[in-house]
Design brief:
Blueprint (H helix, E strand, L loop, with lengths): L4 E7 L3 H15 L3 E3 L8 E6 L4 H21 L4 E5 H7 L2 H5 L5 E3 L7 H11 L7 E3 L16 H7 L2 E5 L1 E2 L10 H4 L4 E2 L2 H13 L4 E5 L18 H9 L6 E5 L8 H9 L6 E3 L7 H6 L6 H14 L4 E8 L6 H14 L3 E6 L17 H24 L5 E9 L5 E5 L5 E5 L8 E9 L3 E9 L22
Parallel strand pairs: 1-2, 1-3, 3-4, 4-5, 5-6, 7-10, 10-11, 12-13, 13-14, 17-19
Antiparallel strand pairs: 8-9, 15-16, 15-18, 16-17, 18-19
Helix pairs in contact: 9-10, 13-14
The structure holds 5'-deoxyadenosine (5AD) and iron/sulfur cluster.
Length: about 475
């Protein structure tokens, strides 16, 4: 029998790409490909790319260059595929710009990978005839992508992403997503529940429902009527084995009353909400076509806080959007001061071809963007540090996910996605533990386990407590 072929997938960008990488791996596993964790010994390398900012998009070309040099030095030929949003946006251009690419495949065509790879293999070294597949097919790719095997689920650990919605109809003027991922599509409730049940059966305890506009979810329920995200979250939380649910990424306009009520009523729904606002200036929000003002954002934050007082927020910000003045930027800083974030992602505006903002008149110089991002990130870092510091002495549940750096340690996640280092045996991975937080550093918290599923005799194990854990250095 011939050796199994080896597959290496490198993902850039968002969590949807992480999910897609798993689906591609599962689908190619059926064709005899086994995963490897280095590009060097792979027969097929897939670069799963991101187009959101110029820097992210350019990475694919440096990566392709590196791959080619490595192949030449090793004197071997690998098949190279470019997937993801750069594949969708640039298509055949990639074949012109980079040598050594056999296949370019957009996110809506991943279910065709087996035939595309077979086709590319038949063409062999005739790389000038690289294959490009960037259609938005009529069939639903999710119906054809293979589910993960039990071993794959176990290997990936007790948390999982599940795509429930893809694409975007909002058309923010800076953003490529409506073009790379297409129009908004929601998966039917039953199919998502099947997928979650399968994951739970394999040991998954926490699912993050993902979509570019996840709180605009409106998938069909059993009767064919559209269900909102609140209903979906409730049903997912009821799947046996599932202890925690999260969802991301949301738009402030789509935080409806039902979803906010779910935060009040569902203990499994984690009290940490990623709610991108992008800017605190009404003028800039309008130019971005965000379809809401800062007042709506403040009101939304208050509504969610009223429903779930222990909730914490994270957000996305863009500085240096075309025409952003010092006053506009001061409004962003003011919004951050007023809301207080437990975490955030912030970016310098990056002009993206084909988006309306790219042709707006007043593009800002790089040093203005740099000054602003520096000030904003300093403020956001202070807020994050203050939030983390306030966790010292608190007790909360963590989901034990993986071994820590030192023997006897495990790393879990708090409800707020903070990494928490504890002393616990490996067998406790996949269980919830109650922890009292003892120490806080910039990267993680550490604490003592004072109870939990494993430690209180859950899963047939004798009750036991573990001792003092060490403070982790930053
Ligand atoms: N420039 C900079 N940041 C961007 N984002 C999206 N498009 C751009 C762009 N053109 C950021 C937004 C979004 C996050 C995923 O990436 O903050 O929420
Ligand atoms: Fe990047 Fe957006 Fe594509 Fe995700 S969907 S990979 S963030 S461009």
């Amino acid at each position: 029998m011939s050796e199994p072929r080896k597959l290496y997938v490198r993902s850039f960008g968002c969590q949807m790409n992480v999910y897609d990488a798993q689906r591609m791996t599962d689908t190619l596993a059926k064709e005899g490909f086994v995963e490897t964790d280095t590009a060097e010994d792979a027969d097929l390398v897939i670069l799963n790319t991101c187009h959101i900012r110029e820097k992210a998009a350019e990475k694919v070309y440096s990566e392709l260059g590196r791959l080619r040099v490595a192949q030449e030095e090793a004197g071997r030929r690998q098949m190279v595929a470019v997937a993801g949003c750069v594949a969708q946006a640039e298509g055949a251009e990639i074949l012109k710009r980079a040598r050594g690419v056999d296949l370019v495949v957009g996110p809506q065509s991943y279910h065709k990978l087996p035939e595309l790879v077979a086709d590319a293999e038949r063409r062999g070294s005739n790389r000038r005839a690289g294959i490009v597949e960037t259609e938005f097919p009529v069939e639903d790719k999710f119906d054809f992508l293979a589910p993960p095997s039990r071993q794959a689920i176990a290997r990936r650990g007790p948390t999982a992403f599940v795509t429930v919605q893809e694409g975007c109809d909002k058309f923010c003027t800076f953003c490529v997503v409506p073009y790379t991922r297409g129009a908004e599509v929601s998966r039917p409730v039953a199919k998502i529940l099947d997928e979650v049940a399968r994951l739970a059966d394999g040991g998954v305890r926490e699912v993050t429902l993902i979509g570019q506009n996840v709180n605009a979810y409106h998938g069909a329920d059993a009767g064919g009527r559209p269900a909102g995200l609140a209903e979906l979250v409730r049903k997912v939380a009821e799947v046996p084995g599932i202890a925690r649910v999260r969802y991301t990424t949301s738009h402030p306009r789509d935080m409806d009353d039902e979803l906010i009520a779910a935060h009040r009523e569902l203990p499994a729904l984690m009290p940490y909400l990623h709610l991108p606002v992008q800017s605190g200036s009404n003028r800039i929000l309008a130019a971005m076509n965000r379809k809401h003002d800062r007042e709506l954002f403040f009101a939304t934050v208050e509504r969610v806080r009223a429903a779930r007082p222990d909730i914490a927020f994270s957000s996305d910000f863009i500085v240096g959007f075309p025409g952003e003045t010092d006053e506009d930027f001061a409004d962003t800083m003011d919004l951050v001061e007023r809301v207080g974030f437990a975490g955030a992602f912030s970016f310098k505006y990056s002009s993206r071809p084909g988006t309306p903002a790219a042709t707006m008149e007043v593009q800002l110089p790089e040093e203005v963007k740099s000054q602003r991002i520096y000030a904003l990130q300093a403020l956001l870092d202070r807020q994050k540090a203050a939030f983390d510091a306030a966790c010292r002495g608190r007790r909360f549940e963590i989901l034990l996910e993986k071994p820590g750096r030192f023997p006897g340690q495990l790393i879990g996640r708090s409800p707020y996605l903070q990494s928490v280092v504890v002393e616990a045996p490996r067998e406790a991975i996949g269980t919830l533990a109650t922890v009292e937080v003892r120490a806080v550093s910039t990267k993680s918290l550490s604490g003592d386990i004072i109870g939990g599923e494993f430690f209180a005799g859950g899963a047939g194990v004798e009750p036991r407590l573990v001792g003092q854990s060490e403070t982790v250095e930053a």
